[in-house]
What does this fold into?
Amino acid sequence: MKVLAIIPAYNEEESISPTVEELLAARTGCDYLVVNDGSSDATERICRERGYRFVSHPTNLGLTGGFQTGVKYALAHGYDAVAQFDADGQHVPGFLPRLIEEMEATGADIVIGSRFVTEKKPHSARMIGSRLISAIIRLTTGQRINDPTSGLRLYDRPMMEEFARRFDFGPEPDSLAYLMRRGARVSEVQVSMRERQAGESYLSAAKSISYMARICTSVLLAQWFR
Amino acid sequence: MSVALRASLLVCSVLVLFFVMRRIRKAGLEISDSIFWLALSLVLIVIAVFPQIAYWASDLLGFDAPVNFVFFCGIIVLLVRTFSQDQKICQLKKKLIALVQDEALRD
It folds into this structure.
């Protein structure tokens, strides 16, 4: 299976190089593409100097647009699947082959690198949001997703086409719920993740409440009218 | 409706009319958008000059005071306008995303 790891990067000058180097060193068998999402720092220069495979947005579009650019690239270059991979060092590339094995073995459309398959979800404040999203996904799809907010996911070709075609359809839990209701099969594989190493997250603490509101509204209401 | 309200309606509409004209001359507004503002200021002028229209309509629709009817209509018009602007912004966003991605993926 030909897999492209899409690495959306917005102002990740400190972590982009370690992330890509680690991915290369892990010999996962995946290709990668950095999508520089209109960074104002040295992200683009670093990618060019080190000869990384990257594309650059002339302006910032956000995670949804950045991931979609990667998906369009993957479709144009004949990839069978894409992986969502964070530029900030949270994701361990060594787990990518396990996700791919799972997709090949089970024929799942989406494989999530999940922190809570065999591990228990901690009762911390940060996980309240995760539990809430799990609960409403269960309510609307009847299926259990242990780690809906994990940003490490693998999508097969039919899913890629959905992401390329749609507007306002990001690689987020609400899209998962929508695709599941339309019959996508989702599988989870236990992985571990690190804390962010550097840079600016798409989900800073201040944004997390509006993130929750958006995801919940989207899962519960807006998806039915899509 | 008091004379003061009628006077301020009149003054506001004339001001709007003046600003819209100026914007169009300086090409700061599309003609299709300016139609809305021109029509709005004309309606306000008509109501300020002939308040009987507002009396008649508020009677018909059961408003306590004609001035409430005028304000109510203003709010509705603004809500519709905001909604249509949201739609327009959404269209612009779609175009922007398509442009940015095309530019990024051009080999």
Summary: Chain B has a mean pLDDT of 87. The helical segments of chain B are 3-25, 31-49, 52-61, 66-105. Chain B touches chain A at residues 94, 96-97, 100-101, 103-105 (CB under 8 Å).
